[in-house]
């Protein structure tokens, strides 16, 4: 088996994040990958849809549509930012076994909870993801706080 | 202060669940209550919208729209069924302090996690909620399993 090219999929999540930024939204993106193929891509839709539930990961899950448990159990979810409690909960609900995180310096989500439930969390510590969030938060701190319930 | 009439709000959540059932969906409903007033109502939309993220509680949050952290911290969320990991995660993300659960005999969600994080979880053990789910699961066991990632 070839080694998985995490960067390729993280780049797809970053592209989603940038799409969100271009729409005036919060630049967090995600892709859901099944057997080496992206089956759902998404980005935070708080601003665009007035949505408190469509974080990047949630939007990727939503866009992947209804899947069986068997599919989720063969998936990896990529996200530009460490997954919050809601997104981590969705990962636990569906039994997604691997989460690849762009960065967690801006925000440390529920990585510990995920690991305690047997999810493999891999951190890429991407400077691009970090700088994207730092720049965004510098511009719109209140919007960011709203997104994480602060 | 008058005692809170939990049953009144649970009834509103049950009405949402029944609406979902009438649409061919999964009968789980929820209302988000702020200072004694419902600010968001919702029901599971898996079938109706092909949505894996719009559980009852998530739909209620979505329909309440964007709220500040200050509002969420004064909210109570009512749900006909014990909240799964995703919905519990959303409750934790937004710091909703009180969750009123119709029943947890059909499905035990993340009540322990919620309590461990300081959320007050109140169980009403409603026969109406229980019977509604039992009847539904008897009819459509596969749809139910899909909804809880089994």
From TrEMBL, chains A, B:
Q: What is its main location?
A: cytoplasm
This entry's Gene Ontology molecular function terms read: diaminohydroxyphosphoribosylaminopyrimidine deaminase activity; zinc ion binding
Cofactor(s) needed by this chain:
Zn(2+)
**CDD domains, alphabetized:** nucleoside_deaminase
- Pathway, per UniProt? Pyrimidine metabolism
GO CC annotation terms, alphabetical: cytoplasm
Q: List, alphabetically, the Pfam families matched.
A: dCMP_cyt_deam_1 (PF00383)
Q: Where in the cell is it found?
A: Cytoplasm
Q: Which domain of life is it from?
A: Bacteria
Instruction: Please list the GO biological process terms of this entry.
Output: nucleobase-containing small molecule metabolic process; pyrimidine-containing compound metabolic process
- What InterPro entries has UniProt attached to this entry? APOBEC/CMP_deaminase_Zn-bd (IPR016192), CMP_dCMP_dom (IPR002125), Cytidine_deaminase-like (IPR016193)
Q: Does Metal-binding show up as a keyword for this record?
A: yes
What PANTHER family does its record include?
A: CYTOSINE DEAMINASE, CYTOSINE DEAMINASE FAMILY MEMBER
- Quaternary structure note: Homodimer.
- Name of this chain's protein: Nucleoside deaminase
Q: Which organism is it from?
A: Hufsiella ginkgonis
